Amino acid sequence: MVLFPKFHHLGSLLRPPSVHCLFKEKLCPAPLLPSSENIFFIYPIKIASIQPSAINKTLKRPGWHRQATNGSLGVDCSAGHPQARRLAWRCHPGLLHKAEYLQNKKGVNMKRRLEMKKVRRHVIRDVGLVILLVTFVACEKEKPNEASLSTALAPFSNLEGTLDIAGGTAHLSVMEEAAKRIMTANPKIRITVAGGGSGVGVQKVGEGLVHIGNTGRPLSDEEKSKYGLKSFAFAIDGVAVAVHPDNPVKALTSQQVKDIFAGTISNWKDVGEREGAINLYGRDEASGTRSVFWKKLLEKGPVALAANIVPSNGAMKTALSGDKNAIGYLSIGHVNESVAAVTLDGIQASQENARTDTYKVTRKLYMNTKGEPSGLTKAFIDYILSAEGAKIILAKGYIPITK
Amino acid sequence: MSRNQKILFERWVEKALWLAGVFSTLAVLGILAFLLYFCGPIFRSSSAADIFNWDWRPFEGHFGILPMIVGSLSVSLLALALAFPVAVGICSFAHGLARPWLGKIVLGVVHFMTSIPTIVYAFVSAIVLVPLMRDLFSRGSGFSLFAAAIVLSVLILPTIVLLIHVHWQGMKSNLHIPCAALGFNRSQEIFWVLIPASSRALAVAAILGFGRAIGDTMISLLLAGNAPQLPDSFLDSIRTLTAHIALVVATDPESSAYHSVFACGLILLLITAVLNLAARWLYSLSREK
Question: A27, B174: Cβ pair inside 8 Å?
Fold first, then answer.
């Protein structure tokens, strides 16, 4: 029980009260006993085990007395000791009338205070209701804007329903832009676009949970035969090795990249003049970006276990842009001024070089459907593969593949 | 409503509640059964040894999940070690060390904390805390065991505080009077009476907080770094079981990597079940006394 026997001098908190042994046993459950008119004994206590010094200390407090009959301690509630009075009330509210107590304390009529509180509550409720009503009315008035239909969007004009898209995170920007244009042209169509990675894309479309599942890698033969999927390649995307924009290292050889990701080069000093431990960032096991990077650049070489794993291209960009010692890889379409793509064996990682096949670490982006697409799904795929779709793909930093 | 109608209504309510209870029990048992069923292939064949080893390199045929188990346990224990003393401190503050109105405000804030979604904690910390950790410790990338544990401790703090608070509320009316009668001051009362007398309830609160920490996904996924390795220090990147499931569940359903997800799920469920049972057992002990 005595936790800190040596630290008694540290103050009252650490000093064990000398009566502590009392609390090992069940505390006596006796009711409150008023013993006389003037003195109220708060709690009768067996004091056999209490050290005399503690009792004497307590008795020095204002209002405290010792009961003659059984030796228990008590407090005088009536003799004008405000502290004791307050304590007694807190212990047993029935002793002193609550309203009387509060009135004495603050000089305010308790009844009036309660009424005021009620009024205030009503006012708050009414104001809240009015605000709610006004918001509803305001929302009702807003009507969706009618947009002019372009020729590419014409096939959507007599379609309606929902289209769900999920999968690869490199595809997101293109899908969202296309969805936005279609939904503005025809408000009856709802298109949802979710990420998750290439693996999620295959699973969801295969299980029929979404209409289009995106992948950043070609489907494996098992996936194709198991679910009966049909692929539509719509863009070429490169995977760039990227670092923080402030990193002076602007060029690496493929061998250096391999060594860095294998963990054999672990300091920026080995590939440039700046000192600093290299922080590796990789993608999750289901990522198409990871799969392309690993196959085409690392040539299925080892990857250090210490690499941080992030779950999307966007998260990779955030991680790289915040860490001066970072190196990672991401879709070229996601590269902007917040990260710096590294020149690889003297070749700039750009979509231009990817198109001419000078930059080798590329992959196609696919939309996959279960079986032959029809209706809204078909219209969407045709739109992505149309000239207007190609413009969106170019604007988002990828190279379109048209029919 | 006549008396007969009332009785009839009562019966319907009773039946509805009974159904709800049976349904939730069946749901939990069903989840357990499904997990066991999907884990079957792993435990029957020799691949159990593949899954219970220290090496996770799925593309080279190593599917060990032990690093994730260690990661989960270490991050939750650290979070608990950070959150528990703070929680006891907050409860002591609210139960007498502070003025009553101030204590009420503090408890109100803690109540509010329970309603913050974990993704908000994770996202804000990924932007604010992680760079701070990186600059402060000049080791690692900031995505680390320690960063995740700090945020997890904030997450489980309200759980622990509210459990202790409820227990102390019940005890205080019994203990405050004798303590006052004996001349204890507030700090002495809390330190020498309230805390020792509620030791079991504190343990229960700690266990439930630990369970919440081990079950959380978003925070460890976004902050712990997800490297499937054994940590050498607090500043190393680790992967927890929950984050592992989130990362691997999207892989090809035929692969061994995918099967290991079910083993992870089963282990998580078993850990939380054992923790909950322990908490219940301790709580019933404290009630009997």
Answer: yes
